[in-house]
Design brief:
- With about 140 residues, the chain is mainly β.
- Strands 1, 2, 3, 6 and 7 form a five-stranded antiparallel β-sheet that branches.
- The longest helix is centred in the N-terminal third of the chain and has 9 residues.
- Helices cover about 5% and strands about 40% of the residues.
């Protein structure tokens, strides 16, 4: 009986265990052509995760999904998306503070929900709350 149980566990599709998360930070470089007589210098180019967007189909189609739940606690704001069955692939977009760079990837089959948790009581440059954690699974 134990052998059958172990074999049954090994047959679980890998996609049902898929977990995806935006990188916490990215290194973004910008280049400026300064006007004549000016010089340019560059500071820290590490940008922290600032938010996410979820799409039903490629983001170019502009079918952005709204979160299904928002829970506000004393220290956290939790946003949750439930991904319903769709003939299209769901896409995750990750946006970063102090950068116009946006990372996009299709979510693997089997991902059914995404969660984004902001830390309340603090702000990052630009005035938004810092992201404490995020995941899709």
């Amino acid at each position: 009986m134990r052998v059958a149980l172990v074999a049954g566990c090994l047959c679980v599709p890998a996609a049902s265990w898929a977990e995806v998360a935006c990188p916490d930070s990215i290194r973004a470089e910008q280049r400026v052509e300064p006007p004549e007589g000016w010089s340019v210098s560059y500071g820290d180019s590490t940008a922290r995760l600032a938010g996410i967007a979820l799409f039903d189909g490629p983001p170019a189609n502009r079918v952005r999904l709204k979160q299904d739940q928002a829970r506000q606690g004393k220290r956290e704001l939790v946003l949750r998306w439930v991904l319903r069955d769709s003939p299209r692939t769901h896409y995750l977009q990750c946006s970063y503070d102090r950068s116009n760079a946006v990372l996009t990837m299709p979510l693997p089959p089997g991902v059914r929900a995404c969660e984004l948790v902001f830390e309340r009581g603090n702000t990052i440059p630009g005035g938004s709350m810092p992201v404490k954690r995020m995941f899709c699974r």
